[in-house]
Structure formats: C-alpha cells, structure tokens
Amino acid sequence: MCATLILKSLQFLKKAVESNVSNKLGTSLVNLSELPAFKNESNVLCISVSVDGIPIAKSGSTAFWPILGKCDQLTKPEVFVIGLFMGEEKPNNICAVIADAPARSFVKQCKNFNAFHGCERCITEGHYSGRVVYPDVSARLRCGLDYIFQKDPDHHTGTSPLVELDLDLVHNVPLDYMHLVCLGVMRIVVLKDIISDSEYVMFLRLQCAMYILLSNNASNAEWNRYASKLLHDFVLMSKELYGVEFLVYNVHNLIHIADDALTYGSLDNCSAFPFENHMQILKNMIKKNDQQVNQVAKRITERRTCGFMKAIVNEKVVIIKSSDKIIYNGITISAAPGNSCFQTSLGYIVQVKKIVFCIEPALSMLVCSILEKANLPGYVCDSDKLGIHVVKLESTENVNLHLSDLYCKCVLLPMDDVHVCIPFTKPIE
Ligand SMILES: [Zn+2]
User: Fold this and answer.
1) 219 and 321 part of one domain
2) C-alpha angle 318-320-321 in degrees, rounded to nearest 5
3) Which domain of life is it from (predicted)?
4) How far is the CA of 126 from the centre of ligand 1 (A)?
C-alpha cells in the first residue's frame, strides 16, 4: 500500500475496496510476476487508498472528502471511488490520512516537518536557523521496527492506529514526490531569477535524478544508487550556494526519496498525482449548490452503468480531433510545435510533418522527418543513456510511420541553434 487510511470501522473500507476491485479485475488483471517494479511473487494485491479534502465552494469551509482507491496490478491502474463525505471538517470516522508531510505526521503520530526530530527516514536532529533545517546527510536510517518500538522517543507524538496493520511505517509510507519535489523543492528553485552556472549545474543533478526515479530504471540498483548520489550532491551543493537555511524538510528528504523507488519502482507508482486529478473530476461533477454528494454518486453510477469507463480502459483509443490533429491513447499528435516530436520504438527521434488520415483512424499514417541527434554537452552523465539528446530540427530524410511505431512523446526545449529533446518517462501504452 503506498497511501493508506484507517477507518475506525476497517470492515467498511475492506468491503468497499473489495467490491470496487472485483468489479475491475475480470478483464484487466495482469500476471503479478510481470511487474518487475513490485517484485511481487506472493499473489498480494497492492491497493493504494487516499483521503484528502477538496474545497467545493469559493467561500466557506465546506469540503468534499472522497476516499479514493487504486489497484496497482491493473494494466491501467485507474482511480476509483470508495466513499464520499462532505462537510465542514474532516469526516470524524476517519482517524488517519496519508498524503503530504503534515498529513503523514498526523497519521503516523510522529513529529511534524518543522520539528527537530521530524525526518521520517533518519534519526537526524534538526536545528533552528531562521527555520528548522537538517544539515546532516548521513544520519542513521530508521527502520520499521524502530518505529513500532519507538526507539527514538523524540520522533513520536503518540501511537498510530496504523501499527495494527501489517505495514512498515517507515518504508510503506512514501515521501510523495508531487508534494516534496514538484510543489516543494522545484518551486523554490523556479522562483529564483535566471540562475547562475553553478546553480544550473546543481539543478541538472536534481533533474537527472528525478528523471531516473520516474523512469523504468527507477528500481534498477545501479541507476537508483546513481540517482541517490545525485540527490545527495544536490543537497550538499545547495548548502554551499544558499547556506544551511536552505536545508529544510523538503530539501533534506531528497536524500531519502530514491529509497521509495526501490520499493515501488517509478515514483509515479506511489504519487498523489492520480488522486489529485481524480479529485478534480469529482469536483466537476457538481453542477448545482445542493445535495452535492448525491449528484456525484449519481454521475459515478451512470458512468458505471453505461460502461463508459470500460470503453476507455480496454482498447487503444484513436480519435481524429480535426483536420490536422489526432488523439492516440490520450496523447495529442500533430505537426504543430509541442505535439510533433516523438521517440519511436526503434529509438529514433522524429518530428511529425503531416498526418494522412484513414477511414479507420488507427491506420492513419504519419509523415515524419528523422532528427539527427547527439549527446547533450555538459550534462551530468552520458545523456544518451537516458534518451536525452540535442537535435537539429532540419532534416532531409522523411519516413512514413504508423501510430503503433511511436513509443513516447518528447519535449523540445530551444538551446542556442539546436533543441534539447527530453522523452516523457511514460510511454504511449
Ligand atoms: Zn532524514
């Protein structure tokens, strides 16, 4: 489980999860042994459960508290609704929630992110330097038994109800990268003005490490060790550049986040992103300011009844959007900048020049130019190994490709007279 909640009535949760999961398993369960990221050979089904609040009115404190689940062994792990609650406060039958750092400390009954003993992964003792910082990057790591026996009494504020579950409360409560990196460290870095050369070198370490930890290489021991080293370097370099005040909870935890990839594979497997996205879908189901829970429950039932969800789960969906745009499995393809660059299954970087539509959309043909590629100079490692390249957009060679020849979409960033091409870590499945 990568995010967990306990209800006072665990039976309710068990029942709701069971009925939702059994609904979905019939058609899309894959062989567990085919999931290297989980190395799960014991026929254990991994269910992630999330609870978080989302305000539904511009003013006032009324919020929705959906309980969402996700079964990680499904070929397309969709988020499903287990239960809905609406009110002014957190639902009172839920006594624990895991999501961001404050919620984790609440559910684990451990010190908060701004306490001296707040690190959930190591026994480092922070100190106050305008705010609580954790300069030590080599403190002894915590383990699940340390937590249960409260070996470090300064870390605990009480006894968590989660100890009743068969969970390693140190390693099975991931440091969600959405909150830690995307909304945390990245925000701090991006808010800085145009960065200096040394900041750029430091930033590349963070980018490269996170790229590895979000890729299929995340749980590979060698790649994982390398990503972990880059993140240690980032933390030490940031201390040199910005001073010890920079080493707050989010920055310190970068030295631990690679461990989550050893447990879960790509950090996308244990992030809050799918749940956050689903919360928005639920919120958009509310059309009027009355009986909101009923409205959402009805919309969910309608979708299940008409098989809407199944239609988009089982097959690759191809939609011709307009005369020059195609949507393949949710990915937009066109000759326009931003949607034209792809990596093929054979490793070529191509740019779509024209789409030749067929009556059967799935058979549409893409006229593409093959882009000349080279290593990105000055990158932290051999960028070719990660699939990151510099490319020239002028090309002489054109090829005709089918949609199924595309492996993943790429981002093109201009740099001098060339472009840096970064493939998305998620393939077009
Ligand atoms: Zn730590």
Assistant:
1) no
2) 120
3) Eukaryota
4) 9
pTM of the model: 0.73
Protein residues placing their CB within 5 Å of the ion ligand 1? 119, 121-122, 124
Q: What is the pLDDT of residues 319-373, one digit of tens each?
A: 666 667 888 888 889 999 889 999 999 999 999 999 888 777 778 889 999 999 9
Cα of 111 to ligand 1 centre, how many Å?
Answer: 13
Instruction: Examine the domain organization and report whether 386 and 399 are in the same domain.
Output: yes
What tokens does 274 get? 């799918």
371 is a domain residue: yes
**Domain around 136:** 6-150+282-312
Kindly state whether residues 380 and 330 are assigned to the same domain.
Answer: yes
Question: Which of helix, strand or coil describes residue 384?
Answer: helix
14 and 134 in a single domain? The answer is yes
Q: Which of 276, 307, 306, 300 is nearest to 286 (CA)?
A: 300
Spatial CB neighbours of 40, under 8 Å, sequence gap ≥ 6 = 32, 33, 46, 73
Q: How far is the CA of 221 from the centre of ligand 1 (A)?
A: 21
CA of 266 to the centre of ligand 1 (A): 21
- Look at the chain and report how many structural domains it folds into: 3
- Say how many Å lie between the CA of residue 46 and the centre of ligand 1: 26
338/374 same-domain check: yes
Same domain, 290 and 146: yes
